[in-house]
Amino acid sequence: MPSANPADDTAAGVEIAALLERGRDLSTPVLRAAVNRLAAPMDTVASYHFGWIDAAGQPSVGEGGKAVRPALALLSAEVAGARPEVGIPGAVAVELVHNFSLLHDDLMDGDEQRRHRDTVWKVHGPAQAILVGDALFALANEVLLELGTAEAGRATRRLTVASRKLIDGQAQDISYEHRERVTVEECLEMEGNKTGALLACAASIGAVLGGADDRTADTLEAYGYHLGLAFQAIDDLLGIWGDPVTTGKQTWSDLRQRKKSLPVVAALAEGGPASRELGELLAADAKSNDFDSFSEEEFATRAALIEEAGGREWTSQEARRQHAVAIEALAGVDMPTHVRAQLAALADFVVVRKR
């Protein structure tokens, strides 16, 4: 998908893989050092989660995350005129909070696979998943505050607010699983909390560490927030129609968890025959005692109804709309041309990814 800003043609020439790799390469040594502070066996469990070792404790080259958040934090520092390295503590702190949430989410959702490997709770047990998640959350604040600067205090405040919103979003997500109907507005609010808040923080935290004023940081947060909504809309599509070989999750994974994701909510709001049939099926599912034994065909039927009612297309359009709003927000900040192009290219990447 081309950049939503026609004037920003340079985004097409940005090498996304190199941008993501820079974020990963600069942040990983500091991230590893932070994890090594944890008491045993939490250090080992965390290392397994990050893909650095396998379940037997041997070094591994397991697939890591997409590294969008570290890339954003380093670019954010450059927006403020600082070197990208200034954003490393922010990149690490955001990654620690993100992975705290993944550890807990996998346990709460009962997910047994992440990045084509068994999840931490499946390998090491629920108690370790909870403890290591808590430890990563604490480490995130420690990594920032030990800088001892006024900028670090401002960055920590933004990270703390984003973390609270992330937890709010997870609580909303769980509560919506037990409701027959959720409005599109409620779903967007939940996803803005669960995904948008931390991406907003990633997009501004490097700039804060680099001495940017609050207006600049707030504008970068707006870019990151809407980028997060676009990111989550794509995630919602992949959660139903994604290729398990690519995503590392089960087929129809979000339907199996009865998630009220954007495609589902938009389809239920449409009101036509397919929408009504879908609503009846989902209402019956909520009362079913044998939901876990549903066949692939039964989940495929629900996915087909969501698509027929327009939920898939609406969500695709919403991802593009949020992408456009994110790009538009960048116009409010002066920055080097190459940094603007890289931020635009990252936004493009988010809405064309397949995992």
TrEMBL record:
<dbReference type="InterPro" id="IPR033749">
    <property type="entry name" value="Polyprenyl_synt_CS"/>
</dbReference>
<dbReference type="InterPro" id="IPR008949">
    <property type="entry name" value="Isoprenoid_synthase_dom_sf"/>
</dbReference>
<comment type="similarity">
    <text>Belongs to the FPP/GGPP synthase family.</text>
</comment>
<protein>
    <submittedName>
        <fullName>Polyprenyl synthetase family protein</fullName>
    </submittedName>
</protein>
<keyword id="KW-0460">Magnesium</keyword>
<dbReference type="Pfam" id="PF00348">
    <property type="entry name" value="polyprenyl_synt"/>
</dbReference>
<keyword id="KW-0808">Transferase</keyword>
<dbReference type="InterPro" id="IPR000092">
    <property type="entry name" value="Polyprenyl_synt"/>
</dbReference>
<keyword id="KW-0479">Metal-binding</keyword>
